[in-house]
Design goal:
Structural class: alpha+beta
CATH topology: Pnp Oxidase, Chain A
Order of helices and strands: HEEEEHEEHHEE
Radius of gyration: 16 Å
CATH superfamily: Electron Transport, Fmn-binding Protein, Chain A
Distance between the termini: 36 Å
Shape: elongated
Largest sheet: 8 strands, antiparallel
Number of helices: 4
Helix content: 25-40%
CATH architecture: Roll
Number of strands: 8
CATH class: Mainly Beta
Number of domains: 1
Amino acid sequence: MKPEPAPVNPDDVADLALATIAEAKFPTLATIDGDQPRLRPVSPVRTDGFTVWVASLRSSHKTGEIEANANVELCYMTQGHDQVRITGVADTIEDMAIKQDIWDENPLLRMFLGSVDNPEFVLYKVVPNRVRFMREWALDYFDVEL
């Protein structure tokens, strides 16, 4: 028997998408390596609505891929299979006040990198240009109004 997803009221799409992000917590991040897509789980260091900050190491493949092509997509999925896809551009944040604020909020950054001015610390802000929500197995995305 085919699963029947709960219906979605279009007026609720933004709230459903935000609830999915809150529940899923750890999205996968898609980048492009030449002509090869690359996908990896990430742990956002800050989320504000549909804008997501992700830390990286300067020496990581992810950083090189984003430097070559800043177009990325984040995908969140709950255990119930609701999905949110955030398509956007990963902007490199150089502003030390923002980096310090995020640094102060994230003990894991401090544990792994030692100091906010560690040259390995790279911070990206993924600014969405498209957000889509899909209810479990519906196979139909709803665009979230930005």
